[in-house]
Amino acid sequence: MFHIFFLLPLLLSTSYASVNDFCVADLKSPDSPAGYPCKPPAKVTTHDFVYAGLAAEGSTSNIINAAVTPAFVAQFPGLNGLGLSAARLDIAPGGVIPLHTHPGASELLIVTEGLVTVGFIASDNSVYVKKLSKGQLFILPQGLLHFQLSYGKSKAVAYAVFSSSNPGLQILDFALFASNFSSSLITQTTFLDPEQVKKLKSVLGGSG
Amino acid sequence: MFHIFFLLPLLLSTSYASVNDFCVADLKSPDSPAGYPCKPPAKVTTHDFVYAGLAAEGSTSNIINAAVTPAFVAQFPGLNGLGLSAARLDIAPGGVIPLHTHPGASELLIVTEGLVTVGFIASDNSVYVKKLSKGQLFILPQGLLHFQLSYGKSKAVAYAVFSSSNPGLQILDFALFASNFSSSLITQTTFLDPEQVKKLKSVLGGSG
Amino acid sequence: MFHIFFLLPLLLSTSYASVNDFCVADLKSPDSPAGYPCKPPAKVTTHDFVYAGLAAEGSTSNIINAAVTPAFVAQFPGLNGLGLSAARLDIAPGGVIPLHTHPGASELLIVTEGLVTVGFIASDNSVYVKKLSKGQLFILPQGLLHFQLSYGKSKAVAYAVFSSSNPGLQILDFALFASNFSSSLITQTTFLDPEQVKKLKSVLGGSG
Amino acid sequence: MFHIFFLLPLLLSTSYASVNDFCVADLKSPDSPAGYPCKPPAKVTTHDFVYAGLAAEGSTSNIINAAVTPAFVAQFPGLNGLGLSAARLDIAPGGVIPLHTHPGASELLIVTEGLVTVGFIASDNSVYVKKLSKGQLFILPQGLLHFQLSYGKSKAVAYAVFSSSNPGLQILDFALFASNFSSSLITQTTFLDPEQVKKLKSVLGGSG
Amino acid sequence: MFHIFFLLPLLLSTSYASVNDFCVADLKSPDSPAGYPCKPPAKVTTHDFVYAGLAAEGSTSNIINAAVTPAFVAQFPGLNGLGLSAARLDIAPGGVIPLHTHPGASELLIVTEGLVTVGFIASDNSVYVKKLSKGQLFILPQGLLHFQLSYGKSKAVAYAVFSSSNPGLQILDFALFASNFSSSLITQTTFLDPEQVKKLKSVLGGSG
Amino acid sequence: MFHIFFLLPLLLSTSYASVNDFCVADLKSPDSPAGYPCKPPAKVTTHDFVYAGLAAEGSTSNIINAAVTPAFVAQFPGLNGLGLSAARLDIAPGGVIPLHTHPGASELLIVTEGLVTVGFIASDNSVYVKKLSKGQLFILPQGLLHFQLSYGKSKAVAYAVFSSSNPGLQILDFALFASNFSSSLITQTTFLDPEQVKKLKSVLGGSG
């Protein structure tokens, strides 16, 4: 490289400044099927790539003795369009993340503390259940019913990581019994007894 | 589930309200390569997921004795970003949907009334033609020239379903003879005779 | 076009024969994340693009008074890789397609006979329900719990079309009560009473 | 970096050797919707990433005074799965690449010699035509009818680059008049006169 | 649901068994651009969805005082086609994961122990660096140079999660100085001095 | 076609005008993960599909005796969403395009003048180098370090074509030595000597 000390005209024009390596979400603008519009590049700072909201323990003083703390694009705008998001699971002894699905993503579960039983049900009604300990991984294919629960005597912590920045979360019991899905339609579209439906709606706050 | 009657703090924060299971098109905003921006979630109603525009028969009193009634994203905004759209085909006896392509989607044809001949031509110039009756399906791979015509004595109805919410539609004769594609360029880029071009431009309204 | 009558050497080499406009599934070879390997092009015939299996009425003499007849890639190999598939729904009066999800696709519902109530529950537990009549369309976003039922006095027929050649189907009650998902895990991961679980397992044939 | 002179155990296991930066096509195995299976990594050489087949001028001694020489995955296996391919266009004075579509890709045209008129017709029958000179680029959106012709007194050369390793090519006149698409179906599905069809079939070799 | 106790013919045929909710990699078959062929569904067990290889600490007794232990599809076949993978980073005090890129994926970093400095350089040469503590997340956009190092007095552990089951890993210094990239080409294509290149090749084992 | 001379009501409603065959970028609106919003269709002209900015030779009077002139979406808005872009490489004798990556695209190189040596380094540190002459093609897989240099006595010209309308460009030496990446972090995350780093920062203008 002979001319190394002669820094002449720039190799490339400044137009490269517009290359979009990333697209930090502007959450105040409307979403689109591919994600949010990008924040102006000039306003992007290191802060946009960091999220500290999963550092604190979620409160497990609730009906399920567990907490799900999301770091989806709505919480962590730097994820926008990059095909990744996460959630922290805190599960007290005896706690459970009830049966749920993520309509738009597969999930990779990483246990970082305690003992976690994870399981899912496939389309052919096969059931896959596994007891995991610290450091073990489990992959949950997209859109299938699954759960996590703590099987140890101390609390468990796990990270769920998703293949979308906006994976969605549909909790079965909440969809049925905490919504305004009418009791009549529930008994027509499931095999549940009306008494069971009535009882759970009263517990979970559903109407209709 | 011991604590079932003690509904304590919510499992999840309200931030989940922003999860985008769907993205109903805001057709007044500019389109993008992935579709339209989403209508604000708070304004979405059941109405956005329904489309009644294909319930009525299309008029076949025209040059082709047939009608194509689209339910693309422009007509049915709830399709936005979901990779699906449809069209209703009404074909009177002797009617025909002339040779055309969909630049951005494959098509699944479902015959629901009458008798339909469908066919397409592949890149290697192979021709695939089939006479279909009620209830039969035919798959038309993306971007290839194809047609549908009624071969029975009564009218035919079929639904064409597409693998995009905005599949496009390029009708061969309209592209050539109902446009301002100049006669000179047509004869240069096809093997058609100038007289044929002139005649069809006069029929279909082309200029240039 | 002066030289039109002198057909000289071919414009293009025969190598174009290998262009893959389509990829009819070779179902005897292993599947892959993108679909099945392609049947040799020389063996593809018109027959590969046709499917007649939805022309016949499905039997509704069963517990749900309804039938789902699939035309997924396993039944209709021509769909492979083209991002589309279908199913025929036959619903006798009072019949119902119970709550279910498609883990890998959105669904466009087209009612072609009778009266159908369709509904889905979104991630935020909003419920969208609509009574449809012949010719109406309804879009069901990917991965969410939904159902169809007949609300008229005569049978209903509808086509469900999917944005994948292999959309999957997880029927909620079957996943829970017709599988070997243990009663203990069901009661831990839902709020259902053990008696309800026991009863439905006995009805639907589940074990564990 | 204190320990720079003490090269200790390898940072990473040899399992990284299986990372697939690329997937050179094994053309002897069946294709799939996502492309061909990969050649074993151990057999990949620099030669797999090079293609010299576009270096030679294509013969323009034919009915269109032009030649299209493809470098698709079938000719250049290193392109497999990488979303790119190319073709060389040689167009003698007065020559033309007739109206055609690429069912599976957009095209970027780069003129490297001579003068080229390029044009396409959009779904709404708008026509976009432009005379290009050396070094100019033109973008042709996926699946639309387009053409290229030489408008100068010397030959023209251009490279067409595609957004797929297997873009497909459907030449309008060949699809209609060099295939076994029956004359009866052609006149039914276009507005062409039977005499015109008969004449062009005789020129281009079609049957049926 | 009147007929609940009369379990009649099955709702659906057994053909649903072929629905591919997942596609566990058959690593003995050739890879493809979309991933490996699927293991036969009948041979899939719960074990295929679990990976324990990240539970053990990686050895940091090496030149970088750090270890990267991958859980890519080659190690964890259940990830195949699901758009996710992971790696465990162990970084002793003073250790560093040197500058590297992942050619095919974005990375979400989750610190689970200790203190980690992470940084990346964007296309416009902007530098984003952040000191992270336990529980904090950082998103690294696809394909950009980045690094992680321990800035605390005790070892750090982090999980890197990727938006592909096969993200790739190109370590800058290894690409330059542990390969057979010739010294002549290195000095021509970087601004490095020949003495520097020679020294680092001797340290890292490069040739040429 | 009996009724050919009676052009009756239009086959299709005007709603087709909104079909988006293309989406010319409105560069004044914010970008999104899928590209820019579309310019209003009514304002699109032929000019939007043409780019003349690569017709002129780039100046090679600089430190690398070479120039890269981009035709990315920021320069050529018609490319938006179509999965293609290009750049012109001018390389004087002895000139070099230094080691760089494109984070978001594979590259197809087409040599149109002179002699070009091209090479890339794979994830497993294999090196692939090839001397190309006019008309030869080389494919560079996404995200890997690569270079181009002129090995002849006259200048070389090549077109690089990319599988994205916004491929990105990270030049290794500029990322390290023309940025504000601190010398301390450079020496920690590479094996480079502090003196080398200091020297190159002074040449290339880096700080920190």
TrEMBL record, chains A, B, C, D, E, F:
Span of domain Cupin type-1: 52-198
A UniProt-annotated Pfam family: Cupin_1
Binding site for oxalate: H102, E107
Localization (cell): Secreted, Extracellular space, Apoplast
Signal peptide bounds: 1-17
Entry-linked InterPro entries: Cupin_1, Germin, Germin_Mn-BS, RmlC-like_jellyroll, RmlC_Cupin_sf
CDD domains per UniProt: cupin_OxOx
Residues where Mn(2+) binds: H100, H102, E107, H146
Keywords for the protein's UniProt record, in alphabetical order: Apoplast, Disulfide bond, Glycoprotein, Manganese, Metal-binding, Receptor, Secreted, Signal
Tree of life domain: Eukaryota
Annotated disulfide bonds: C23-C38
One Gene Ontology cellular component: apoplast
GO MF, one example: manganese ion binding
Keyword Lipid biosynthesis: no
The family this protein is said to belong to: Belongs to the germin family.
PANTHER family: GERMIN-LIKE PROTEIN SUBFAMILY 3 MEMBER 3 (PTHR31238)
UniProt name for this protein: Germin-like protein
Organism listed in the record: Lupinus luteus (European yellow lupine)
